Amino acid sequence: MHTAAAIPILSRYRWVMAAMSLLGHLALGFNLFGISPVLPLAIADYEISNFAAGMLVSLPMLLAASFGIPGGMLVARIGVKYSQLIAWASMAVLALSFLAPNYAVMLLLRLAYGLGLALMITSTGPLLMAWFSQREVLVMNSLNTAAISLGVAIAVAGAAPLAELTDWKISMSVFGLVGVAGSIAWIVLGRDAPLEGVRPAPISLRQTVAVLRGRTVILLILTDAGVLFQYTALTGWLPTFFNDQLGLSLSAAGFITGMLPFVGVFAVLAGGIVPLRFDSPRGIFIVSGLAAIVGGVGSYLLPNLPGIYAAAGVLGFGSWFYVPILLTLPLRLPGITPQGLAVIYGSLMTFSGFAMFVAPILVGALRDATGSFLPGFLICTAMSSTALIAGALLPRNVSAGNAPQ
Q1: Is position 216 within any domain?
Q2: Dist. CA 326–CA 216, nearest whole Å
Q3: Is 370 exposed, middle or buried (0-12, 13-18, 19+ CB in 10 A)?
Q4: Which of 95, 109, 111, 122 is exposed most, by the fewest CB atoms within 10 A?
Q5: Is residue 391 part of a domain?
Q6: Do the domain assignments include residue 126?
Q7: How far apart are CA 216 and CA 43, in angstroms?
Q8: What is the pTM of this model?
Q9: In whole angstroms, what is the distance from residue 314 CA to residue 311 CA?
Q10: Spatial distance between the Cα atoms of 377 and 360, rounded to a whole number of angstroms
Q11: Burial class (CB in 10 A: 0-12, 13-18, 19+), 54
């Protein structure tokens, strides 16, 4: 694998690319769940059902999921520079949220964000592979994920207070402004690494299938989808649950839910350091799986606020700790190329995106049908056990595991 670390002429510019990557993931985090704490306001303003409100969170995930694998193939063909530009421009559209006169327009703006989400994620792997060494990629994956988590934390905790000062749609526009700034910066600074072997090149459907059929890749995909199934559902609906069941204000409910991504910032930083000291990644997935299950159940079943705070912290840790190694393990597969890496990242986006799409709708629909959030929450927690399964089944040495043929 060619790396920028081996070519002095690129060593300075790669830190510009690192900064752009971090800013992109921060913008992604701002808009991922920023609308969740103000869903009750959207329901009242647009006179929509819980199911329809859940679509504002989950339908962008469906679009991102549908575009994941095709998006990975597109990134391989057009390269990082243009893929990231499209991603930035799509996320910047959310700055127009304050103009959305009805539910349909707001949903369209959220769908544009879904396209940006897909391309930002799928193009990150090739970007990092082109500019950084494998150890640096692990650190960058940790920092990028921390940026997403920080963005989610700020948006989830700050959306309701900002909405109280202005309007809930204006608060959505404020978070979207980061996308505008990033689009302008990427036009000036963005580029593909001028290195042989990492330039854009098409990848066939047969090659795509070959990359995805290894056991390690399948386990990584299932892990991320299962954990994010619960994380999306709880991040999307816990503010409403706390508001309805515990009588907390939307600001207080959003603050508690904001602990999930806030703790996640430190969890992913730890997740980028711990693997440097251990050869096998299995323990990381087992710890994450146990924390996700225990914290998930505690966040909606414990009867007192101190217990709920503690559970939210455990849930946030379990939902983020595994991510840096999950994103870095594909680089250890024998014969992996930037094009194959884009396809793997696209597949993670596809399956995790479908999980993130289904989860909020499932919880909202079961709430409408049963009058309770608990059936949907319990199903989502059961889905998060995939991290435990991966911890048991992953090979101890991934580089010796199934590789693309």
Answers
A1: yes
A2: 10
A3: exposed
A4: 111
A5: yes
A6: yes
A7: 42
A8: 0.74
A9: 5
A10: 10
A11: buried
* Tens digits of residue pLDDT in 334-363: 777 777 777 788 888 788 878 887 888 888
Higher pLDDT, 372 or 87: 87
Asked if 130 contacts 58 with a C-beta cutoff of 8 angstroms, the reply is no
What is the distance between the alpha carbons of residues 260 and 244, in angstroms, rounded to a whole number?
20
Q: Is residue 360 packed enough to be buried (19+ CB in 10 Å), middle (13-18) or exposed (0-12)?
A: buried
Domain that holds residue 125: 8-400
Under 8 Å CB-to-CB from 153, ≥6 apart: which residues? 29, 258, 259, 260, 261, 262, 264, 265
Residues 142 and 86: their CA atoms lie apart, in Å, by 24
Instruction: Give the count of domains, the chain.
Output: 1
Dist. CA 147–CA 259, nearest whole Å? 15
Q: Which of 170-179, 230-239, 247-256 has the highest mean pLDDT?
A: 170-179
CATH of the domain at 85: 1.20.1250.20
Q: What residues contact residue 303 under an 8 Å CB cut-off, 6+ apart?
A: none
Record the tokens describing residue 350, joined without a space. 């596809």
Cβ–Cβ contacts within 10 Å for residue 392, how many? 11
Helix (H, G, I), strand (E, B) or coil at 278: coil
Of 272, 27, 271, 3, which Cα lies nearest the Cα of 127? 3
Is residue 259 a part of any domain in this protein? yes
* pLDDT for the residue 142: 85
Q: Is residue 5 predicted with pLDDT exceeding 80?
A: no
pLDDT tens, residue by residue, 278-311: 667 888 899 999 999 999 998 888 888 888 889 9
Contact 91, 109 (CB under 8 A): no
Give the count of beta carbons closer than 10 Å to the beta carbon of residue 189: 12
Tokens for 383?
């889905």
> For tokens 């995909």, what's the residue?
221
**Quick one: which of 308, 274, 38 has its CA closest to 139?**
274
